[in-house]
Amino acid sequence: MQGDVAVSRRGSAAVLTAAGSGTRLGARVPKALVELGGVPLVLRAARGLAEAGCLDALVVTVPAAELGAFAALFPGGHVPGTTLAVAVVPGGATRQASVAAGLAALPAEVDVVLVHDAARCLTPPGTVRAVEAAVRGGHRAVVPALPVTDTVKRVGPADATGAEPVTATVDRASLRAVQTPQGFDRSLLEAAHVAGASRAGDEAAAASDDAGLVEALGEQVWVVPGDERALKITTPHDLAIAELLLSDRG
Ligand SMILES: Nc1ccn([C@@H]2O[C@H](COP(=O)(O)OP(=O)(O)OP(=O)(O)O)[C@@H](O)[C@H]2O)c(=O)n1
Ligand SMILES: C[C@](O)(CO)[C@H](O)COP(=O)(O)O
């Protein structure tokens, strides 16, 4: 924990998930080490969090076999060029397990936690600040999200040709596509991970986001505006889109 921490504001930190392999991207290195504009995704995401200026500490969860390669991106245990302190820890078999590992490594003083994907490395600092401020403002679980613009159909099991029967058209007015960082009161997020711990080892059962674990506790989750730049880089197509966004920004 760095700097003075006021009594009324004990500290905000982020867990940056970067322990995935990136199967769908298909690179030779773990996805978070893939470069976008010459900068690894994990470093770009960490810089975005640091630039937000509202965080006191950062925990990055990484593939256990690559601990050294990831730690080398944060010389002196800081996000380069900033005073934001970084701890690099091994992640788990699922994103949920990786977040749990990151939570366990947070400094004791932290009372607000943001969970962010390295794969969403172009998220603007303003989105980070908005999520942190919403939690500080009293909403104990906050997710950034965008309205869904496609028409969305529910389908049943495919027939022999592989075609799927449509069973319903979902009212998209009430749908939101959820991004990261997701922000939480620390005690609520820890309780949600304890309650959902039995799901963490199995990709099919694991929660795909942290808000889902909080919802499973019966607690209210709130949505604030997301940003198109916070897209998740999952496939080579996404990486190409991100390169375009970067050149547009430049
Ligand atoms: N065991 C895991 C799996 C995922 N993640 C992180 O969670 C975020 C979202 O996951 P995704 O983009 O789906 O990454 P991968 O699991 O690496 O992708 P794939 O499913 O294509 O292998 C990423 O920042 C990823 O590094 C993680 O920390 N630990
Ligand atoms: C957390 C997340 O990025 C919010 O959209 C998403 O749920 C991660 O899902 P994935 O299955 O790990 O890609």
From TrEMBL:
Pathway: Isoprenoid biosynthesis; isopentenyl diphosphate biosynthesis via DXP pathway; isopentenyl diphosphate from 1-deoxy-D-xylulose 5-phosphate: step 2/6. One of its GO terms (biological process) is isopentenyl diphosphate biosynthetic process, methylerythritol 4-phosphate pathway. The record marks R172, K232 as: Positions MEP for the nucleophilic attack. The record marks R24, K31 as: Transition state stabilizer. The keyword Ion transport does not apply. SUPFAM superfamilies: Nucleotide-diphospho-sugar transferases. Its EC number is 2.7.7.60. It holds the Pfam family IspD. It catalyses: 2-C-methyl-D-erythritol 4-phosphate + CTP + H(+) = 4-CDP-2-C-methyl-D-erythritol + diphosphate. It is an enzyme of class 2 (transferase). InterPro entries: IspD, IspD/TarI, IspD/TarI_cytidylyltransf_bact, ISPD_synthase_CS, Nucleotide-diphossugar_trans. One of its GO terms (molecular function) is 2-C-methyl-D-erythritol 4-phosphate cytidylyltransferase activity. CDD domains: CDP-ME_synthetase. Keywords: Isoprene biosynthesis, Nucleotidyltransferase, Transferase. Belongs to the IspD/TarI cytidylyltransferase family. IspD subfamily. Catalyzes the formation of 4-diphosphocytidyl-2-C-methyl-D-erythritol from CTP and 2-C-methyl-D-erythritol 4-phosphate (MEP). This is 2-C-methyl-D-erythritol 4-phosphate cytidylyltransferase.
